[in-house]
Amino acid sequence: MPAPARSRALWLMLTAAALVLLSALSVATGTRDVGLGDIAAALGGHVETIDQAAVAMRVPRTILALLAGGALGLAGAIMQGVTRNPLADPGILGVNMGASLAVVVGVAWFNIASAHAYIFTAILGAGVSAVFVYVIGSLGRGGATPLKLALAGAATSVAFSSLVIAVVLPRNDIAGGIRAWQIGGVGGATFERILPVLPFLAAGFVISLLSARKLNSLALGDELAAGLGERVAVARAVAAFGAILLCGAITAVCGPIGFLGLIVPHLCRLLVGVDHRWLLPFSALGGAGLLLAADIVGRIIARPGELDVGIVTAFVGAPFFIWIVRRQRVRDL
């Protein structure tokens, strides 16, 4: 086996082991300290004590954190590949906030209540936002440059955030729930909340992972990719659709969680390189591990309360974003 392949296989095993360790830690960590006997009993379906009930509640939370982190990490890698922009991220490009605005409007004006209505509305909002940002970023000379897309996405996020406040402000009946959801978190997860979103996540994961070869072609530049027989617009649209499915579905369940899609692909490139056939699955695994770790940290540092995972990722992601901006020359973006 060549050295790069051995290195990637080693990182794959280490990442898988870290996910197993983090999952065990997540099940065991919370406002109550529980013993191994209670953990084993709860995982075996026996919920007879408060400690066992606490463990049973942490299991769906752990699963949702893994799914959300994997989806956002993979979506971030897809968006960076589609736009060839190192600053691309579902939050920075306005996709998460577009999904959020759509859900808020749906709740406030159309009284949507079912899980599937939330999911379809969020995916629609994410898609419209992505198209809007791309159109705005394409205006002027040079087309959709990475810098123009980042600026258009940032402006769109701010505008949509203000619209969310404007929609919620006169509605005291929904304001509390919307504000809590807007922070972004995996607390209160149940299997009933997770099951409706699984088909959308499965479709998003499959479409995104199958786009790896096309993203490798797009990385060479549009003209060279077209010369190799790639339909550039179609390849870009299909990959972006997979990312939109992932972002919209997770935002519907967890609220907008920022910066994860920015951090994870950069870290994974350091480990496995720029080949999207490796980068995409590693970004999914890395995102799952990072979000689960952030959720665990949020439970530990604020005992007996907890910090929502969206707050923890913001604390980590904002300095990382500043570092990326300072590291990249503006003319190279």
Report on this model:
The chain is mainly alpha-helical and 333 residues long. It has one domain: ABC transporter involved in vitamin B12 uptake, BtuC. 76% of the residues lie in helices and 0% in strands. The protein has helices spanning 3-28, 36-43, 50-83, 95-110, 115-138, 146-168, 172-183, 191-194, 198-210, 212-218, 222-227, 232-254, 260-272, 276-301, 309-327. Helix 1 (3-28) runs antiparallel to helix 3 (50-83) and helix 3 runs antiparallel to helix 14 (276-301). The longest helix is centred in the first third of the chain and has 34 residues, at 50-83. It starts with a helix and ends in a 6-residue tail after the last helix. Belongs to the binding-protein-dependent transport system permease family. FecCD subfamily. Keywords: Cell membrane, Membrane, Transmembrane, Transmembrane helix, Transport. One of its GO terms (molecular function) is transmembrane transporter activity. This is Iron ABC transporter permease. Its main location: membrane.
Low-confidence stretches: none
User: What is the overall pLDDT average?
Assistant: 88
Q: Write down the CATH topology.
A: ABC transporter involved in vitamin B12 uptake, BtuC
Secondary structure tally, helices: 15
Between the first and last Cα atoms, what is the distance in angstroms?
36 Å
The CATH superfamily name is ABC transporter involved in vitamin B12 uptake, BtuC
- Strand residues, percent: under 5%
Oligomer: single chain
CATH architecture: Orthogonal Bundle
- Helix and strand element order: HHHHHHHHHHHHHHH
Shape: globular
- Roughly what percent helix? over 70%
Which class do the helix and strand fractions yield?
mainly alpha
Number of domains: 1
Question: How many β-strand runs?
Answer: 0
Largest sheet: none
Rg calculated over all Cα atoms: 20 Å
CATH class: Mainly Alpha
